[in-house]
Amino acid sequence: MCDRIENNCSFTFSSHGAFPYPDVHHSLFALPSGLEMVTCSRQEGMLCVALLSTQPVSHCPACGSAATRIRSRYQRRLTDLPSTGQPVRVLLTVRKFFCDMPTCPRKIFTGRLAPFVAPSARMTARLFQMIQIIGLATGGRLGVRVTDPMGIQTNRHTILRRIMALHAEPVGHVPQIGIDDFSFKRGRTFGTLLVNMQTHQVVDVLADRKVETSAAWMASHSEIELVSRDRGGDYASAAATGAPQAVQCADRFHSMKNLREALEGCLARHLATKRATRKPKKQSTHTVLLSMPLDRSDVHRRLSIFNRRIERNAWPVMSR
Ligand SMILES: [Zn+2]
Questions:
Q1: Which of 138, 152, 181, 217 is 20 to 30 A from 262, alpha carbon to alpha carbon?
Q2: Does domain 176-253 have CATH number 3.30.420.10?
């Protein structure tokens, strides 16, 4: 009983009680083993797929023992990767199992379907990864411009959350660090950025720019030999406390910035002195004429001269 996908029509159970062409739908939707497609319909511009978990065994998340006794079923609503530009909604029926381990505090648990979907997640793992990839390549606002045409319904906040969910790599060995503040929200909340001066890569981000926070971070990295910082006092005292063995230096950016500000001040003072000692400029004849009131008769005279000149220089009309 298979129909072509059209508006408001659906693939349904066949008369044998199973979805037709099981190999085809597994290939089309890349479903993992243990999941069967029950229906596929198109509603309100999106594909709605009903999946049924058929896994006979699941492992208890508390004790890890294999459970086979099924207690009940319940349904989860998920979002999946779009198909042919259409959003895909999944109605997933999963099994609940009894944990028969007497010592286990967990008596009932829901069957795990990793890596297809994480427990309690509202989207499939592959959609989660796709949003992460788009977010890393484009960012929050730009990411929405990419996901909308693709049929992925999300927003910039979700994209940013997916990026933040990525596991950060361990900091590793950083003998030379650069430290400076930056604003999470311009002029309001600030954090601290730490850069490996040898690789020019950001190694860590601290939630504030307090001396104690930076000093604690440096104290956990005894290999620090050099701290490149601004010329303020906070990071200098943080380095003195957290990494007293390290040599401190002003970084190139702040040195150049301070030099530029000093030069600007010096030149401004020099210019002000020069302007104060300059003699008043003599007014030109042109300026004097422009500042004189207009004589109406003079304007008419000049206009008539101008018109005569135009007529005199006009191209002659060629007679045929
Ligand atoms: Zn258990």
A1: 181
A2: yes
User: Does the structure show a pLDDT above 90 at 92?
Assistant: yes
Distance 198 CA to ligand 1 centre (A): 49
Helix (H, G, I), strand (E, B) or coil at 167: coil
Instruction: Note the pLDDT of residue 71.
Output: 92
Q: What is the Å distance from ligand 1's center to 112 Cα? A: 13
Distance 285 CA to ligand 1 centre (A): 101
d(CA 306, CA 298): 12
Name the pLDDT band for 29 (thresholds 50, 70, 90): confident
* E-strand stretches of 121-200: 176-185, 189-196
Q: Which residues contact 267 (CB under 8 A, 6 or more apart)?
A: none
Q: How far is the CA of 104 from the centre of ligand 1 (A)?
A: 4
Token look-up 């896994």 returns 55
* Residue range 273-284, pLDDT digits in tens: 888 887 766 666
**How many A from CA of 64 to the centre of ligand 1?**
6
Cα–Cα distance measured from residue 127 to residue 225, given in angstroms and rounded to the nearest whole number? 44
> Per-residue pLDDT for 7 more than 60?
no
For residues 87 and 153, the answer to whether their CB atoms sit within 8 Å is yes
- Residue 165 pLDDT: 84
Q: For residue 136, count other CB atoms closer than 10 A to its CB.
A: 13
Distance 77 CA to ligand 1 centre (A): 26
Residue 73 CA to ligand 1 centre (angstroms): 18
How distant, in Å, are the alpha carbons of 218, 228, 253 from that of 190? 19, 19, 19
The pLDDT score that the predictor gives to residue 45 is 84
Percent of the chain with pLDDT over 70: 84
**CA of 38 relative to ligand 1 center, distance in Å:** 30
